[in-house]
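Tokens as discussed.
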């Protein structure tokens, strides 16, 4: 009987632990992009520094494409876009795997940019899906990306912008990202239900054990 009670206690605590952690998160990333290079025409970047903020609700383990709701995206100066801004998530394959979020115009996809268009593109890399607040921007100088004057192409993953009237594509070589501390959210009703059920189960088992001991003593 004691063994059975221990199993029930473990099950209740498992429900409590699993229910208290939601997969969907809301994060805010404040970023700066600087030292842009033109990978097509070797032109000087007309906008030398871009700062911005990106707030998004997402699941780091779930991939989505060209979502246009559930986020805010602002840059200074304001980068023009010929199509609505959206985001795509390349979900991690495991809770400790890496996830990527691309933000940009949805005409060709947030993860693509082409010359002769107004099209911003910002790539956030999250190395550990269980810690989505820890993010950096994918930039030209990141290992594995050939990016620089005449050495890159328009399909590499990087952060920057394109402007109408020129075939140039400007990618940043320097970045910073900060994620402001987030106040822990209030558990959802389903989570509260699991918590209450878990404690109720533990209390009931404690009562049954006490009652049985009293009968044996009598």
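Sequence:
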């Amino acid at each position: 009987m004691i063994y059975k009670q221990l199993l029930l206690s473990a099950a209740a605590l498992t429900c409590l632990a699993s229910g208290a952690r939601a997969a969907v998160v809301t994060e805010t990333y404040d970023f700066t992009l600087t030292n842009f290079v033109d990978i097509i025409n070797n032109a000087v970047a007309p906008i030398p520094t871009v700062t911005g903020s990106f707030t998004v609700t997402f699941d780091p383990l779930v991939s989505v494409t060209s979502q246009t709701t559930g986020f805010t995206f602002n840059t200074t100066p304001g980068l023009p876009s010929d199509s609505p801004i959206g985001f795509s998530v390349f979900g991690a394959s495991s809770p400790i795997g890496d996830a990527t979020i691309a933000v940009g115009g949805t005409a060709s996809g947030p993860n693509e940019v082409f010359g002769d268009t107004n099209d911003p593109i910002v790539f956030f890399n999250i190395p550990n899906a269980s810690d989505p607040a820890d993010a950096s921007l994918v930039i030209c100088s990141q290992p594995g990306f050939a990016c620089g004057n005449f050495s890159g192409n328009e399909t590499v993953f990087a952060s920057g912008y394109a402007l109408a009237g020129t075939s140039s594509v400007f990618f940043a070589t320097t970045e910073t990202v900060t994620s402001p501390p987030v106040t822990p959210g209030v558990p959802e009703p389903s989570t509260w239900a699991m918590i209450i059920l878990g404690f109720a189960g533990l209390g009931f088992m404690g009562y049954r054990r006490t009652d049985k001991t009293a009968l044996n003593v009598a």
